[in-house]
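U., I forgot to send this yesterday:
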Amino acid sequence: MGTTRWLRHVFAADWLRWRQFPQRVLAAIENAIGEQEQRHVGELRFVVEGGLPIGRLVRGQRSRERAVELFGALRVWDTEHNSGVLIYILLADRAVEILADRGIQAQVGNQKWESICERMRSQFATGNFASGSADGICAISDLLARHFPATGDNPNELPDKPIVL
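Result:
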């Protein structure tokens, strides 16, 4: 593992997290999730992590592995329609990961998720974290609305508030 990666994770993680996702951006993300979830029975979770803890760095953990770990820990898989989706941002690695529960994954597939990740990374690279996040949430919701449209009863099964690690 490169020294540059270590330095970004250990020394720049907190600064990156609060600079790029201040409270106003997190509030906008929470509102966007709440609004978009009205269109479908899917459930979105948004997680931002500045950098990995040292133990995970030593093990060589990558963003995808961390996203899978959080998907389980946050119980994103535990929705009535198997339609939970995790959006995971690891700032130190400039990584965006989207993981979907088996119900929606069977309908959508990896290529569409990767396309949304790329759009978000592109906007993040120009410093547009609020609009990049909103764009990703809307794009995911478009897919969920197509495959899991809202029905009469649409309870909010997972919190809309973004998690900052």
